[in-house]
Design goal:
Shape: globular
Distance between the termini: 16 Å
Radius of gyration: 21 Å
Structural class: alpha/beta
Strand content: 15-25%
Largest sheet: 7 strands, mixed
Number of domains: 2
Strand order of the largest sheet: 8-9-10-7-6-11-12
CATH architecture of the largest domain: 3-Layer(aba) Sandwich
Helix content: 25-40%
Number of strands: 12
CATH topology of the largest domain: Aldehyde Dehydrogenase, Chain A, domain 1
Oligomer: single chain
Length: about 350
């Protein structure tokens, strides 16, 4: 895109971003009421997601992002989108990519997140009416030229069966991991708490496991995340905590417990809710090897250590604030859509 084309295209999204960063009364009502439909979508979590989405839609980043692509004019493909609903507005980036490439979005919204995505798109249409004809929210996907579908490892097999004959991006389960050295400050570990606890750990960018040096002492870690203790007051989180704690106690599985988080040594990447797995390493080289072996299961790596890995690496506290160009599973959605 030329600078003129970029400027013309992004103005409506910049305005949308401003409205999301400072929600009006109507949007605040939706934010407050989402927990009636999904108990995980507390007002604090939904507001965090809405504001983060708005902050992402800033002029500098939009211009930087779009300048990388040569988006063809005229050709408009119908792109089916199967959106996830594990955290609020998690599917918005896919919708954004389809609209900015001039394609038509057929949106199969998650029942967990349908009201929020519909409202945000209605705000976009209020700002720029031409987008009204560039998307449809549908119950069943038909007549599509391409597909972007996000789901679990199980649903991905269904997606591949039904959508495999058209150009597609099919995403499976991914989780995120943090690499600690033992030299982290209290502020680093407090910020890591956001990566672990924001959205109750339900996102693919939430840290579900730690890599720590052999002999790591967790006392300082627990002290640094104590301010997150109120998470235990959420009934669904508390139910998961109680259930997993009882299983570990009955099975006499060795674990650590600070009253709101269970920490257990385990080679697996995906931990249950309210549980954080950890694995030890002897040196940074061995830690990097462990990460390389799991690279196709990782969404991002939270660390203060520079690593030579293909996975996205972010600083402590930043896993839930991806840039526009931080694509899920490392697949360039804009490149895919521009080449349909």
């Amino acid at each position: 895109m030329s600078k003129l084309e970029i400027s013309t295209t992004i103005n409506s999204f910049i305005e949308l971003g401003k409205q999301l960063v400072a929600p009006d009364t109507q949007l605040m009502h939706i934010i407050d009421s989402e927990r009636q439909y999904n108990a995980w979508f507390t007002p604090e979590s939904v507001l965090r997601a809405v504001v983060a989405t708005g902050e992402m839609l800033n002029s500098a980043d939009l211009e930087k992002w779009l300048s990388r692509y040569n988006i063809p004019n005229g050709a408009c493909k119908k792109v089916g989108l199967v959106l996830a609903g594990n955290i609020p507005l998690v599917g918005f980036h896919d919708v954004l990519c389809v609209l900015l490439t001039g394609n038509h979005a057929l949106i199969k919204a998650s029942s967990q997140d349908a009201r929020l995505i519909k409202y945000v798109l209605s705000k976009l249409v209020d700002i720029e009416t031409r987008y009204k004809d560039q998307f449809n929210i549908v119950e069943r996907l038909v007549g599509f030229d391409a597909i972007i579908a996000t789901g679990s490892n199980n649903t991905s097999r269904y997606f591949e069966y039904y959508f495999g004959k058209v150009p597609n991006i099919i995403r499976k389960n991914r989780n995120s991991i943090a690499l600690l050295t033992g030299n982290e400050t209290a502020a680093d570990l407090f910020n890591l708490g956001h990566d672990i606890f924001d959205y109750y750990g339900l996102g693919c960018r939430n840290v579900s496991k730690l890599l720590v040096p052999t002999g790591y002492n967790f006392n300082f870690f627990f002290e640094s995340i104590e301010n997150y203790s109120l998470i235990i007051n959420h009934h669904k989180y508390n139910n998961n905590y109680d259930y997993n704690k009882s299983i570990y106690l009955v099975n006499r599985d060795e674990h650590l417990d600070n009253g709101f988080l269970l920490v257990k040594q385990d080679t697996r990447l995906v931990s249950p809710l309210a549980v954080l797995f950890y694995e030890t390493y002897s040196n940074i080289e061995s830690a990097q090897k462990l990460l390389e072996e799991q690279s196709d299961q990782l969404q991002c790596i939270v660390t203060g250590v520079p690593l030579q890995l293909k996975n996205q690496q972010v600083k402590f506290g930043q896993s839930q604030y991806p840039q526009l160009w931080d694509y899920a599973d490392g697949i360039d959605t804009m490149e895919f859509l521009s080449n349909l």
